[in-house]
Amino acid sequence: MSDIRSVDPASMAQDVRRQPDGPGLRIGKRAEVILFGKVIPGGEKLYRERIGKFQAEAAYWEERVGTVHDFRILMFDDDTRLLFLITYDGDFKPYVVDIIRGAGKWFDDFMPGVWEGFVSADHPSTVDLVLAGAMPADFFYVSNPELTVRDITRMKKLSRAFGEVLDAAG
Length: 170
Prior knowledge:
The chain has helices at 43-65, 92-110, 125-133, 149-169, and strands at residues 16-18, 25-27, 30-38, 68-76, 81-89, 134-135. The chain is α+β, with helices and mostly antiparallel strands. Strand 1 and strand 2 form a beta hairpin.
């Protein structure tokens, strides 16, 4: 085992760049975006009523999108603002198309009456709303930056199948 103190930490630096087609940073095949939005007065009540269903349905809808590694939402600033933190595969514009195509209904059930300016996922103003509230992180690190959600899913299936073969042989 090597002594960690003998390794120059900077020699392990990841190639962090700006997304080529939108806000956010990228390392390998993974990207991040941070979005801020305003809560409509009274929207905090709807948010709290709907957040449980939104959480319960996350795996279903995000599987349909197929490019999301993690997604977090926080209501803050005395329930007047929203913070969205998302890590996903690929470029920004295809990701937005994936969300609208794969999970638009999920957002349409949650955000109207909560996020100021949100009409529906497929409304022409939605991309502008996202862009207006988007900014890149100051710091972004990912482990295994070359693995996509699909790669990880495939490896999990392969590992499970291999385990079943070993169990059957043993």
